[in-house]
Amino acid sequence: MKAVFTFSLMTLRMLFRRRTLWGILLIILLALAGIASVPSFDVSNQGRFILDFGLFGIEVGALLLALGLAATLYPRDRETKTLMPLVAVPLARWQYLLGRFLGAALVQAAALLVTCLGLMLILLFHKLPIPGDLLPATLLIIVEGWFLLSTVFFFSFFTSPPLNWPLTTMLFMVSQMGVAEFVGLLPSAPGLMRALRMLLPHADVFHIKDPIAHGFDVEPVYFLVAIFYGLCYSAFMLSLALAVFRRRDLK
Amino acid sequence: MTDVRPLQVKELSKQFARKRGLGSVQAISNISFDVNQGEIVGFIGHNGAGKTTTIKCILGLLKPSEGNISLWGSLPAAPLARKRIGYIPENPDYDDSFNPMEYLNMFASMRGLSGIDSDWMKLLRRVGLAGWESTGIRQFSKGMRQRMSLAIALQSEPDLLIMDEPTGGLDPIARKEFRELILEENKRGASVLLSSHILSDVETICSKAIILSRGRLMAEGSMDDLLGEEHLFRITVISRKTGREVEETIPETDLQSRIDSMRKDNLTIVKVERALKSLEEVFMAATGGVKQ
What we know:
- Chain A is mainly alpha-helical.
- Helices cover 77% and strands 0% of the residues of chain A.
- The model of chain A has no long low-confidence stretch (mean pLDDT 87).
- The two termini of chain B are 43 Å apart.
- The relative contact order of chain B is 0.14.
- In chain B, helix 3 crosses helix 4 and helix 4 (117-126) crosses helix 5 (142-154).
């Protein structure tokens, strides 16, 4: 595992040195500032509005970060041939995949925590209270981000980055849908659509922005189950990615 | 008995599927060869002959369609066998945001090596990168990247060095330094598989050569056997008419009788040597080139 940790550290340092991370982070923070500057009629509404759209902004940020950080990692490694000396000698393919994933996941988590801090500052600036569940809500978005990251890795082993973006975004949108909405896409085959919906990820479990915005408490068990689900689904996507990567000829 | 040969390739074939299901391309076909302990083996062939494909199969980057590869008797994927290999890829590149010292430290950690900065400084000095240890790789020329690649390959003191066109695009001085390093490594005990277009490099340092053409093995053998394949000898005598040296090439079977007849004729024999062909001639003959 030492090789995996070293490689993830190498990935982390590499991603921190790239402009992509800082560009996406700036976009998310500007979007949050934009949300906060929208005028509202009364103070209680404004708090709800900032929290609701702020957490939505952080969630979209998780998608952007997953795509921006990971969609080009493997294709770029192959194109520049940096992959060959790595996979030929010191690393097995699973170590390469896990190292890249862990490095990107840590960078993504750090960036999302910064955006959460940004949201807290906006609330403080407007003299609004910071809900206790804001940090756990961000943690759930981080787990959702890891699931998206593993999806991006999976697609990156057999598609180009321009195709990875729409595919991951599509899966992200589908994963937000409820069963009824999903069945509505193809009403003639409700059984098939229900079964398909069961298999596809349920990113809606990571969303607790509505209860937080409306001041309701969220049970700690819910957090744990949602985190467990997110980690399991990420591991499943990474296993699929590894199965594809193992079969690939590195020409 | 355990096979201790560093590399054994048996009846290796590799096919690549064409895009959109339009059949397949046979990249290499039924190749067999060995690299024995302490050998420097030249792996030569024209562009597209299958050298890089063979090397990538050996390293587990490509899956062979048929045939077997063994490294010290193990499969190429075996971690213990992989640890004993140093690999220099063709046109190596590294992430621009790191410097050589960072790279060497990271590779050392990934390989479980215990070296420290001063060891890597020595290594960088050895490959000609002294003074560049803290400079970002983005500022490196092609030659410097190749030196960097050599440093990474030599870092673990490998038992088998696999080099894919390591001197391509280097200036003559750098090429000479590379050759000297390869010989030093061989002296240390490393076996070497050197893929190269530069026949003079192979001729100078290799003890054995493998010639590929269109994915097939065309010739293989020790350098002495390949270059002196037809067992011809060259006799240099001083001409009685002109007083100048004259050369005569004759088959080994006639050598003794010809020397006897020259002595009978009172000719001064200056030297008798094996008439070696150049590797270029051997290569051209083996690959169907026009030069014989």
